[in-house]
Amino acid sequence: MRHLIAILRGVEPHEAAAMAEVLVDAGITRIEVPLNSPDPLTSIRNMIAAVGDRAELGAGTVLTTKDVAAVKETGATFVVSPNCDVQVIRCTKTLGMASYPGVFTPSECFDALKTGADALKLFPAGMAGTDGLKAMRAILPAGTLVYAVGGADASNFAEWAAASADGFGLGSSLFKPGMGVADVAERAAITVAAYDEVYNG
């Protein structure tokens, strides 16, 4: 499985299924809708109906346990947050979903892992930089999955891979509100090709 998560911030419910279809067809099989998008829970449901048998669908920008419960009701299977909130992580795991909390410091990394996080979202990755990830990797437990989010895209996968990033969360490099399905399909194809060249080449 490619460690890529498409972040569809601002997607509208009426276009969500079509966007999910082209992403999955390109080879991106994890998709999140941030909760600060228009009617995000409906978008998630629409995507699950369309590609739920071929992809994992989840929510991003999940900040409270109430949000976690609402996401669970859609049938989503994972939760992504911009921050490390141990209550959100614990609730996510209790409800049987995968947890990808945002971290920026070693303390947040260890708090997240201790609470049961499945992977760490280094955010904003551009601010931490590849040197920051290298330094943190030296003290993280072996096997810890780290996704670089915010500042990582197809143009610099190789640099992040050299710094030990396992995968990426990709927002505006894949999707911006107002984009057509063809645009997203083209960007997804470029992204997958770049990822495969670095990680599977």
TrEMBL record:
Keywords, alphabetical: Carbohydrate metabolism, Lyase
InterPro entries noted in UniProt: Aldlse_KDPG_KHG, Aldolase_TIM, KDPG/KHG_AS_2
Recorded metabolic or biological pathway in which this protein acts: Carbohydrate acid metabolism
Keyword Lyase among record annotations: yes
A Pfam family hit: Aldolase
PROSITE patterns linked: ALDOLASE_KDPG_KHG_2
Source organism superkingdom: Bacteria
Sample GO molecular function, one term: lyase activity
Signal peptide (from-to): none
Family: Belongs to the KHG/KDPG aldolase family.
Subunit structure: Homotrimer.
NCBIfam families assigned to the protein according to its UniProt record, in alphabetical order: PRK09140.1
Designated name of the protein: 2-dehydro-3-deoxyphosphogalactonate aldolase
Lineage, highest ranks first: Bacteria, Pseudomonadati, Pseudomonadota, Alphaproteobacteria, Rhodobacterales
